[in-house]
Amino acid sequence: MDNQTPESSREELKELLAMYQKLKTGRGSYLIEEEAFERLIDYFDDNDQLSQAIEAANRGIDQYPYSSLLLIKKADLMIADRKYAEALEVLDRASVLDNTDTNLYVLKIEAFLALGMREQAVTIFTEAQIAFNGKERIEFLFDVADVFDDYEETEEVFNCLKAILEQDADNQEALYKICFWTDYLGKFEESIELHKKLIESHPYNYLAWFNLGTAFQGLKLYEKAIDAYLYSIAIDDKFDYAYRNLGDAYIRIKNYKEAIEALEKVLELSIPEDIIYEALGYCYEKIKDYSQARAHYRKAVHLKQGDSQLYYRIGLTYMHEQNFKSAIPHIESALSIHPSNLEYSFALAGCYEMLGAFKPAIERYAQFVAQRPKSLKGWKALIGCFYHYGHYADGVAQAELAFKATGKPVFIYYKASGLLHSGKSKEGLVWLESALAIAPASFKEFAALDPESLQRASVVKLANSYLSGKRKRNRKK
Fold this sequence. Notes:
The protein is mainly α. It has helices spanning 6-25, 34-46, 50-63, 68-80, 84-97, 102-114, 118-131, 134-150, 154-167, 172-185, 188-201, 206-218, 222-235, 240-252, 256-269, 274-286, 290-303, 308-320, 324-337, 342-354, 358-371, 376-388, 392-406, 410-421, 425-438, 443-449, 457-476. Helix 2 runs antiparallel to helix 3 (50-63), helix 2 (34-46) packs parallel to helix 4 and helix 8 runs antiparallel to helix 9 (154-167). The radius of gyration is 36 Å and the shape is elongated. The N and C termini lie far apart (92 Å). Mean pLDDT is 92; it is low at 471-477.
């Protein structure tokens, strides 16, 4: 039968179906073999004819009442038909005939879980683990893991995979799956303990080293994760997932040059992905190689054209180079995809401000603070833009609104700066003194906003009177 061609197999099935149809209608007294009934059941089940499959199972059982295999197939179909209690009765009959079939236990566990009888399901699970060994036990654990997954018994899924690896440390399927479930369940400490034991007995298990790295990374222990990934790569230098995670770990510790090297290796070993190009762009941006950053962001855009963040980051690279004119079309592209994104609008306002387009810059800054009235960044940019173009009265008014909205003393400094520059020196000094009395540590922000005021003797004298007093108090402490 194994040597049959697809054509001969189809022809045989066609003859079997015809024979079965005659048997059903009483037009023949055929004796269909047990294996043929199995094939009929599978055929109807595969073609979503559940009632026909159950009928075929019943007819087969009538003819072969001591067939545990046909009983198990019927129970499987009844579970699909949500007749869980009846399925358990059929499985009890099958277990009397043969209790060595792993499917018997898998289906019992599924039926109990479907009935909400978790305790009974776990009991069956425990019994079955003792009953089976070797490959049979591993196959059972994989099957029951899928059942636990279907019923969201995620802890038990993890336990199944752990049991498989404790028996077979090199089982790749279990190693890949437990990596996912470790992250999903946050079982990083347990995973570290498990994989350290696996590595002790199988030191050249590259997947175990990789999983150990991902567990360390889950706990933000990036240096340890990097060491584990490097061991994994030393064993298998073509393992692209290890390079991928290694690159991410290097990014987390701000080692961008090493991250670039790891991510470039990912591109050598696997199909190019936008996420890798984006990560490379980010790394180059961080080391201030903006042309390379743009090149990689553009490659990412080619693979994922609807990602507004990529256009935005290209725009930012131009902004870092003070090339605001070139930045604008890219940030506008980002906004066209995601018009409500305030960060994009804020960046665009910055470009307009630096190019002398005062009105559109102010409009966008104002929109930003209207949407985020507690944002210090937004208020500072708005007030700073007014001052940048000499609109001090408007800036002072916005500083007052900013203080009301945020309660932050830094905006008293901003108000003082505007008053000093608008010719209201006395009033400006009064507000500066008020700010110094409330928050002397924030004077550095006043100095950054208005370095010219530090040339005024009255400002320096006033600042020194408060700041020197603070230094003396700190020394006493």
